[in-house]
Amino acid sequence: MNVAVNKNENKGVLSSGKIHPKMFALMMGMASILMMFAGLTSAYLVRKAAGNWVEFKIPDVFLTSTLVIVASSVVLHLSYIFLKKENYGIHKILLLIATVLGFCFLGLQYSGWMEMNNIGIHLNGNPSGSFIYVISGVHALHIVGGLFFMVLYLFYSLFKNNSLNDDPVKQLFEKSKSHRFIGMKLLLVYWHFVDVLWLYLYFFFQSQSLA
Predict the structure, then answer these.
(1) Domain tally for the chain?
(2) Which listed site, 70, 114, 146, 172, has its alpha carbon 20 to 30 Å from 52?
C-alpha cells in the first residue's frame, strides 16, 4: 500500500513519520562510506606503528581546500533555504557558486598532491605519503560523485522554468508536488557529509604529522 506524503517530505520523511526511502538509502550508503574511511585511517595508524615511516608536514594548500569545501557546504545550504522560499533566482545563483567551489576544492587537492610529489613524497614511495594520497584520493572520488549530481541538478535548474509542470526537482525524482524538495535535500545531506568527512580527514592528517 502506498503511503501518502506531505510537506514534511522536504525534510526527508514521510507523513507517517518514517524516513523517505531515498533518504534511507542515502544514509545506508553514507554509513558504508564512513566505515570504509574508518578502516583506512585505522590501517594508517597500524602501519605507522610498524615503523619505516617518514614524517612530513602536509602542504598548507590542504587547509585552503578545507576552507573552500566548508564554504561550498554553507552556500549550498543557503541555496536550499531559498529554494524552500521559492526564490528561484537566488537559489540558482547560490547553487552555481557552490558548484564552482566544489570544483575549486578538487583543484586545490590536486595542487596539494603535486606539492607532496615535489618534496619527494610519492604515491609509490614511503607508506606515510601513500596513505595520504590514497585516502584523500578516495575522498575526492566521492566529491566527484556529488558534483556530478550537483551539475545535473544545476543544469535542470537553469534551463527549466519553475512552473509545477517543469519543476527541476520533480523532473529528476518524482512526479508529485510533494517531492519538489527531496532531490535538493538528498544532495545537501550528501554534500554536508563529504564536507564533515574531509574535516575529519584533514585534522587526522594534521594531528599525525605533528605527532
Answers:
(1) 1
(2) 114
